[in-house]
Structures are given as C-alpha cells and as structure tokens.
C-alpha cells in the first residue's frame, strides 16, 4: 500500500447504515449504549456487591441460560480477564492431568501453548491443521479434557461441537465460543464448558469471561479445588463458582461490559433466541460468500463451504488488488475494521458478521467494495 490512501469518495446512498465490521471488539448496538447512558446514574460508579449490579449479573446469567438452552444442572460462571485468562484458569482448575487441543489458527493455538507451559500437567496432545481448515478430535484413554474452538476468529473457520468418539466417560469437552456465541447453533449437551468473552457476538466490551458449565464440569472444579492443588485466587474456578452463585465476581468487574452484554442477550432472546440470531448470521454469510464466489477478483479463503464461518468471513483478493489499500479506502469512508488478521499474512479482508451487524449492511459493504475496486482499477 502506498503512503497515501487513494482519495475515493463512496456515494452516500451506497454506504452501510453502520460501517463497523470489526471481528473484536465488535460493533456495539447504539440502542444498548443509549440504555447504559439512561441507567448510568444509578448503576455506573456503584459497588459491584450491591443490588443494582448483582441484578445485572443475574440477568446476564439467566439470559445466557435461556439463549443457549442449557440443560438442567448447567450453570453460568463469570470472572474477570477474558478468554486468555480463562485458558490459564482451565490449566489450573479443569485439566486434571492431560488435555487434547485442536490447533488451527492463532487463538486455538494459544490455549495449547498455555497448557504446554504448565509444569503441573502432562504435555498436551496438539492436533494441528493448516490455516483455513480444522482438524477433528480423537478419543484417547489418557485425555481428561478436549479443547475445541467453535469458531477460529483469525482464519474464519467454524467447526461442529461434538463429543469425540472413544473419549473416556469422565472426560470434559471445553469449547472456546468467543466469536461463535450467539451466532452459531450448537447442542449444549455436547459440551461441558462452553466459554467466551463478550466483545464479539455479545456486542459488549472485553475484560470478562463467561462459561456455561455442565454438572460434570462443576464436579471437576470442586474435586480439583479439594485436592489442594495450588491455584492463584484470581484463577481459581471454585472461587469464581462460589461468587457466580451469588451473582458476583471475585474482584471488581467492568460494569459497563456486563450491562451491554445483558442488552445484547435480551435483544436476541426477545427476537426469537439463538435460532433467530443464527439465521441473521446465516443470511449475512450467504450474501458475503455469494458475492465473493461470483467476483472475478475475490474468493473465500476457506475452501470447504461447510467450514466457512457464519460470523467471521475471510475473503482473499487476487494479486491485481492490494487488500490493505482497499481497507484503507473503506476506512476513510467510515467503513472500518475490515483489515486482515495481522499474523495470517494474506491479501484479504476479514469481515465480522455477528448478530448485531445487519445483513443489509453486509450487502451494502459488497457494493462499496465493488465501487472502490472499479476506481482503483
């Protein structure tokens, strides 16, 4: 890309109503921000131990249980630090001896790396596949936790959530759903730990982790805590469990994040729940991949249609176009955060299609890309 962005003005009647397409932090609905502003005087700046905050935490936990259609006995846990911190907490409080990790992108690889560095655990089994694909888990007698990733945000690959065939009866299935929650369907009975952060599909902000935990997962947390394994308090899932049952967190959370997540969950539930929001993402994916399939200059990065994410799309461009220049022109026209994932190193755009993003804006984006490419040529 040249030092100067080409001066291309996209006509106002082509641009999306909302030009935010970031894969995280993602678009936060304006209505949610306005609701937070109205509630701010009685909510922001208050103690997280008081009723006004605990009410919001309860609303988030209950709303997520409804959204995810959790079976009886499952509970929503939460704590500070986001998904990265949850990986460390899982290394201390969920894995008893050895885990298996599917590694097929930047984020799925990070959990595996965190566990590999844990001196109290056996070395994990890591099953890798090239970027743009996903591997499948393999049942093993010595594996007590299977680490899956529902949606690899860096590459735009999604995978089904299923228990591995041949897994031992007491093994846990832990699913990173940070970019999948709210936008991708799944059967909660296939997962013991469905964990995520709220800055993507839940259209909030970062700094919080949430996890839908099965009775077997809760029993594992209790058993490891009783074993007297040393666990830092901030990473102790038993402490998180005890506080979550009181609609609290161990230390002070970001109150705005909780409130915005509640707004998003209630918005989805009031419109029909996960089926409604996933169908919205399906429609966005149909528009974007359909456009890329027809274009002479572009193609979906993920070759297998069934593996193409319905919440984060990666679109490759041929050598005649510079995707970074294209993204810069879009940004100059208030269409933002379409740049490729930095470490993937491809000539592509990465475009979020989370539930908060209107499919009509995805369609408008394709028209804007066509307009810019015509003028760049």
Q: How far apart, in Å, are the first and last alpha carbons?
A: 14 Å
What's the CATH architecture of the domain at 46-271? 3-Layer(aba) Sandwich
CATH topology of the domain at 46-271: Aspartate Aminotransferase, domain 2
**Class from helix and strand fractions:** alpha/beta
Order of helices and strands: HHEHEHEEEEEEEHHHHEEHEH
What is the percent of helical residues? 25-40%
Which spans have pLDDT < 50 for at least 5 consecutive residues? Answer: none
- DSSP strand content: 5-15%
- Sheet with the most strands: spatial strand order: 1-9-8-7-4-2-3
What does this entry look like structurally?
- With 377 residues, the protein is α/β, with parallel strands linked by helices.
- It is built from ten helices and twelve strands.
- It has a seven-stranded mixed beta sheet with strand order 1-9-8-7-4-2-3, sandwiched between helices. It has a three-stranded antiparallel beta sheet with strand order 10-11-12.
- Helix 2 runs parallel beside helix 7, helix 3 runs parallel beside helix 4 (106-116) and helix 8 (274-294) runs parallel beside helix 10 (359-376).
- The longest helix has 21 residues, at 274-294.
Helix-strand layout with pairing:
Layout: H1 30-43, H2 51-67, E1 75-80, H3 82-93, E2 99-103, H4 106-116, E3 125-128, E4 145-149, E5 151-152, E6 157-158, E7 172-176, E8 193-196, E9 208-213, H5 215-226, H6 237-244, H7 255-271, H8 274-294, E10 298-300, E11 312-317, H9 323-332, E12 348-352, H10 359-376
Helix pairs in contact: 1-7, 2-7, 3-4, 8-10
């Amino acid at each position: 890309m040249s030092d100067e962005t080409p001066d291309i003005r996209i006509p106002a009647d082509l641009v999306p109503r909302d030009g935010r397409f970031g894969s995280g932090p993602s678009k936060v609905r304006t209505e949610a921000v306005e609701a937070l502003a109205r509630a701010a005087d009685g909510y922001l700046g208050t103690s997280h131990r008081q009723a006004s905050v605990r009410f919001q935490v309860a609303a988030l936990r209950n709303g997520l249980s409804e959204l995810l259609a959790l079976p009886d006995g499952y509970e929503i846990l939460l704590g500070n630090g986001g998904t990265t911190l949850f990986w460390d907490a899982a290394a201390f409080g969920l894995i008893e001896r050895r885990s298996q990790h599917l590694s097929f992108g930047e984020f799925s690889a990070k959990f595996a790396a965190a566990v590999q560095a844990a001196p109290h655990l056996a070395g994990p089994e890591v099953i890798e596949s090239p970027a743009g694909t996903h591997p499948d888990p393999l049942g093993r007698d010595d594996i007590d936790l299977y680490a899956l990733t529902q949606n690899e945000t860096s590459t735009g690959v999604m995978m089904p959530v299923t228990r591995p065939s041949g897994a031992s009866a007491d093994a846990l299935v832990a699913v990173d759903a940070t970019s999948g929650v709210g936008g991708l369907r799944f059967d909660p009975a296939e997962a013991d730990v469905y964990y995520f952060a709220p800055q993507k599909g839940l259209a909030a902000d970062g700094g919080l982790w949430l996890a839908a935990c099965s009775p077997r997962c809760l029993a594992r947390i209790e058993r490891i805590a009783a074993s007297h394994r040393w666990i830092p308090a901030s990473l102790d899932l038993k402490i998180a469990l005890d506080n979550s049952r009181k609609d609290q967190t161990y230390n002070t959370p970001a109150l705005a994040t909780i409130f915005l997540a509640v707004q998003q969950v209630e918005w989805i539930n009031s419109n029909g729940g996960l089926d409604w929001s996933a169908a919205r993402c399906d429609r966005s994916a149909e528009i974007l991949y359909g456009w890329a399939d027809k274009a002479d200059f572009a193609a979906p990065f993920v070759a297998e249609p069934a593996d193409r994410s319905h919440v984060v799309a990666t679109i490759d461009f041929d050598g005649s176009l510079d995707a970074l220049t294209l993204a810069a022109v879009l940004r100059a026209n208030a269409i933002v955060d379409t740049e490729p994932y930095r470490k993937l190193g491809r000539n592509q755009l990465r475009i979020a299609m989370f539930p908060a993003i209107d499919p009509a804006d995805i369609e408008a984006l394709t028209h804007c890309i066509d307009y810019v490419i015509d003028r760049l040529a």
